[in-house]
Write a structure and sequence with these properties.
Function: Catalyzes the reversible oxidative deamination of glutamate to alpha-ketoglutarate and ammonia.
CATH architecture of the largest domain: 3-Layer(aba) Sandwich
Structural class: alpha/beta
Helix content: 40-55%
Number of helices: 13
Organism: Idiomarina aquatica
Strand order of the largest sheet: 8-7-6-9-10-11
CATH topology of the largest domain: Rossmann fold
Shape: globular
Strand content: 15-25%
Number of domains: 2
Largest sheet: 6 strands, parallel
Radius of gyration: 19 Å
GO molecular function: nucleotide binding; oxidoreductase activity, acting on the CH-NH2 group of donors, NAD or NADP as acceptor
CATH class of the largest domain: Alpha Beta
Protein name: Leucine dehydrogenase
Number of strands: 11
Distance between the termini: 31 Å
Order of helices and strands: EEEHEHHEHHEHEHEEHEHEHHHH
Family: Belongs to the Glu/Leu/Phe/Val dehydrogenases family.
Length: about 350
């Protein structure tokens, strides 16, 4: 199968395969659309089972970034990158500097930031080879706090429409993944009175959630079937699939993970099940809004306002979806494409 026949290829402008033998770098950069501005999206470091799996991921993620920036009203296009390998063993200054040189060769068409297994300190090394980065320690910094805040506000918007009130007191939320974003999001919800049911691969983090957030801990595969009002996927994507949908008992799906739906058809499936879905690239846009303060010279005051506007964006989306009796994801895609088409 060629790239152009790949099921996730969506008229991407550019896909770059990067290899540096000396440092061991194997990466893919996907630039989806630059109509609204240079493509921005984080770099994910993951131990993919194959390069084909990595390609699928980066194509989907880059398209999501285009829609995310459009729906957030940002002067940015969508791109994404993945580095293939085990984060515990392959990280090195040489690898990140080699990666920076590849980014620099694109001449500003792609701006990178941190994502899964990439830290601000890693981006600082990339920045030694290119200025086309965002989220460096001495400027915008870590975007995860704003991602968590936006996700929390998005959950409140969803609760207003599906549960009748944005007040989370007594609302049961199943949080899958307690990384930097997931844990901060869970704390926001707990401070608002929510009851937490959590899971994560890190036992130390789970113990912390038990003691600090009074959370109930369940196994990795148990989280789908728990009795909860809201399922919040905050780890990797595709956790909403044919098998897990059979187990869900929730009324809302709203979390910070990217590509939550394993297949676009699940958008209608969850609607038919009576579940309100907060499209991932709308609810988790806080991170890209945050790094936009560096990439597009946006003030921190404007950044905070745009993050808080995620609530209003979802409020309007949910209302329109109900009025038109349409799946929320399908409608969000249409709205994003309209924004881009109008710009063209």
């Amino acid at each position: 199968m060629s790239l152009f026949e790949h099921p996730e290829f969506d008229h991407h402008e550019e896909v770059v395969f990067c290899h540096d033998e000396e440092s061991g770098l194997k990466a893919i950069i996907a630039v989806h659309d630059t109509t609204l501005g240079p493509s921005l999206g984080g770099t994910r470091l993951w131990n993919y089972s194959s390069s084909a799996e990595a390609l699928t991921d980066v194509l989907r993620l880059s398209r999501g970034m285009t829609y995310k920036s459009a729906m957030a009203g940002l002067p940015l296009g969508g791109g994404k990158a993945v580095i293939i390998g085990d984060a515990k063993s392959i990280k090195s200054d040489a690898l990140f500097r080699a990666y920076g040189r590849f980014i620099n060769s694109l001449g500003g068409k792609y701006i990178t930031a941190e994502d899964v297994n990439i830290r601000t300190s890693d981006i600082d090394i990339v920045a030694q080879e290119t200025r086309h980065v965002a989220g460096t320690a001495d400027k915008a910094g870590d975007p995860s706090p704003h991602t968590a805040l936006g996700t929390y506000l998005g959950v409140k918007a969803a609760a207003k429409h599906r549960l009748g009130s944005e007040d989370l007191s007594g609302v049961k939320i199943a949080v899958q993944g307690l990384g930097a974003v997931g844990y901060a999001f869970a704390k926001y919800c707990r401070d608002d009175g929510a009851e937490l049911i959590v899971t994560d691969i890190n036992e130390e983090t789970l113990e912390r959630a038990k003691s600090e957030l009074d959370a109930t801990v369940v196994g990795l595969d148990e989280i789908y079937g728990v009795d909860a009002d809201i399922y919040a996927p905050c780890a990797l994507g595709a956790t909403i699939n044919d098998e897990t949908l059979k187990q869900l008992k929730c009324k809302i799906i709203a979390g910070s993970a990217n590509n939550q739906l394993a297949n676009p058809k699940h958008d209608k499936v969850v609607k038919d099940m009576g579940i309100l879905y907060a499209p991932d690239y709308v609810i988790n846009a806080g991170g890209v809004i945050h790094v936009c303060s560096e990439a597009a010279d946006m003030s921190l005051e404007e950044t905070d306002k745009r993050v808080r506007d995620i609530y209003n964006t979802l409020d309007k989306l949910f209302a329109r979806a109900k009025e038109e009796d349409r799946p929320t994801g399908e409608l969000a895609d249409q709205m994003a494409r309209e924004i881009i088409a109008n710009a063209k």
